[in-house]
Design goal:
Blueprint (H helix, E strand, L loop, with lengths): L1 H5 L2 H15 L4 H15 L5 H12 L5 H44 L6 H26 L3 H15 L4 H20 L28 H14 L5 H14 L5 H13 L7 H42 L1 H29 L3 H15 L5 H18 L1
Length: about 375
């Protein structure tokens, strides 16, 4: 009985995403690279094409994209129980680490130093993203027109276009080409595959910072925030600093830093902010509220992904979105590489990591931990 339980899909999901939650530094693109390596290559849960469909669909949703990919993987492996398990296990370690940093911040007035950890971990994450681009790109760009779309999306991203607009435009372009080609002599029925998730901000909460106003604000953010990183920072600033005056600009930057130096989703910056506003209860409420919409939206994507792929028009739209998603991963890799590869040591670490991952198939967790440890030693010595 014990062996059956140990090998059950739920246990498998829990083990994988708890480990990723403890070690997945580097942001959404790196997280997706790790999930592709672990779930597709390592465990064979699905084909690379099916995984890419989930990535493309989740990129169209508001909220933390890589966390939603984790949830959809859990759903595909073990249903709704798998979705809840994957999301919880991926989020929980980051929440705990961020909460610890928030406690130290309030107690000592500053964040513990973590520059060394990032110095070593970020070059490894660049290598993981490059590996994922190589693997997923062979699927996304299986026909030369899709490769052209991907190159165009990369160029538009460099010019500063919003990621969601790039995804939608690429999907619409490929859908339009297929529709024109297949509608000759036939009456093609349009299929609505993309519900509008954009909404206006809710009205301001009451002046006293109670748990209910705190919950409503972070619930709204979980529904309307597209993208991550600096996009998340902009939404937090507009609501929490400029409109509600709950925290200062300095506290906001420290909260985002805490989310960056911990593994897992950057959205756990909400944990830090909630603790600053209302202590332990505020941290729990803010975290639960900002992630709650993702559990529902990811479940819908997991349930409908195969049906969408069976529709010719919806499949064409998804092909365009997938090509754009890989192009955006390349754009993120370039931006992260500029920031992470700052000297000879970090360049060497990225190159060695890529060789270990691609040629020798070394487990990514050990590469990440080794890079972080080496970064701490090099930073202390320098």
């Amino acid at each position: 009985m014990a062996s059956v339980t140990d090998n059950s899909p739920i246990t498998e999901v829990a083990r994988l995403f708890l480990r990723l939650g403890l070690t997945a530094f580097g942001g959404p693109a790196a997280h997706i690279g790790l999930m592709e390596r672990e779930a597709v290559e390592g465990r064979g849960w699905m084909s690379r094409a099916a995984f890419l469909d989930l990535v493309g669909a989740c990129n169209l949703l508001p909220g933390p994209g890589s966390t939603q990919v984790a949830m959809t993987l859990g759903y595909r492996r073990a249903g709704w129980a798998g979705l809840i398990t994957a999301g919880t296990c991926f989020i929980l370690p980051s929440m705990v680490f961020t909460l610890g940093l928030a406690w130290a911040y309030v107690r000592y007035g500053s964040l513990p130093q973590a520059q060394g950890l990032l110095y070593g971990a970020k070059p490894v994450m660049v290598a993981i993203i490059v590996q994922a681009i190589w693997n997923l790109g062979r699927t996304a760009f299986r026909r030369w027109p899709l490769a052209v779309v991907g190159v165009a999306c990369f160029g538009v991203a460099l010019a500063g276009a919003p990621p969601v607009a790039i995804l939608l435009a690429a999907g619409a372009l490929v859908l339009g080409v297929v529709w024109l080609r297949e509608s000759r002599g036939r009456n093609t029925r349009a299929l609505a595959v993309l519900p509008s998730m954009l909404g206006s901000a809710a009205a301001g909460a009451a002046t006293p910072v109670g748990l209910m106003p705190l919950c409503l604000v972070f619930l709204k953010l979980g529904v309307v925030v597209f993208g991550s990183g600096y996009v998340l920072l902009a939404f937090f600033k507009a609501d929490l600093v400029d409109r509600l005056h709950w925290i200062t600009n300095g506290q906001l930057l420290d909260a985002v830093t805490a989310g960056q130096v911990t593994p897992g989703p950057l959205f756990t910056s909400a944990t830090f902010i909630g603790y600053l506003i209302r202590g332990w209860a505020g941290a729990g409420v803010a975290t639960a509220a900002i992630f709650l919409p993702s559990f529902l939206m990811a479940g819908i994507v997991g349930a409908l992904a195969e049906r969408i792929r069976r529709s010719p028009l919806a499949s064409a739209f998804l092909d365009g979105v997938n090509a754009a998603a890989v192009a955006l991963m390349a754009f993120v890799a370039l931006a992260l590489g500029r920031a992470a590869l700052m000297d000879g040591w970090t360049v060497a670490l990225a190159v060695v990591s890529l060789v270990l991952l691609l040629r020798f198939r070394v487990n990514a967790t050990w590469v990440i931990l080794s890079g972080a440890a080496l970064g701490i030693l090099l930073h202390a010595a320098g």
